[in-house]
């Protein structure tokens, strides 16, 4: 809740005029308790989850041939009923597990210093904090993901997420409720280390879910903007992990690939890439019009 009764009072306290964004923020949040501002996050998560995978899902449902050449596992098709059930299960987990956790964690969020007042952060401040959040989350997510592929972790928790051996956008957060909560820890760690504004926190959560949805979409679109991000994994990289399944010891990365490279857990994927490149070269030499766009080998 803002400690100002009017825009004039806020401008006097800051010693300058409010920006257009700050005026909007004042009008929206001035009389709202910080708890309710923080509670917005669960609504944003459901909204992002409902909308971000929708374009690809609709094209795949009504005009699949238009994007078939980009599909990573072209022989696997998920019927609409499976996608709808996946959506229901994820929303149920958000409401019954993620929602209560976020609400109960409100004192922690306040304690680490995530603020709701004025001034709003600058663009550079938001960008720097988001970079830290992505790097911190990615590193700790890597090790938790590796642990979940151990015998106990996989059989009791992580196998639910791998029910989709050919992932789809709606299945990005599809997982056992315990996994959803466990993997929430790295997502909160970055904001706890480098606390910022609640708006930055909302943006971080939204971007992280959009990234996960893109990584699980099942298509390797050539013009995806994330292809220009250094060390970014993407859909093709993570699709191999799902293809191998429970026995996978490859491609644990959440966002970036540097941990897999440093710790040697991308060998299966790199072997596959080299294998397919050799096959394409052979076919090109022999004038064969063949296309390989799905994993052919399971190598660890």
Automatic annotation (TrEMBL):
It catalyses: a long-chain fatty aldehyde + 2 NADPH + O2 + H(+) = a long-chain alkane + formate + 2 NADP(+) + H2O. Its EC number is 4.1.99.5. GO terms for molecular function: aldehyde oxygenase (deformylating) activity; iron ion binding; oxidoreductase activity. Keywords: Endoplasmic reticulum, Lyase, Membrane, Transmembrane, Transmembrane helix. Residues 131-265 form the Fatty acid hydroxylase domain. Its main location: endoplasmic reticulum. Pfam families: FA_hydroxylase (PF04116). The chain crosses the membrane at residues 35-62. It is found in: Endoplasmic reticulum membrane. GO terms for biological process: lipid biosynthetic process. Belongs to the sterol desaturase family. This is aldehyde oxygenase (deformylating).
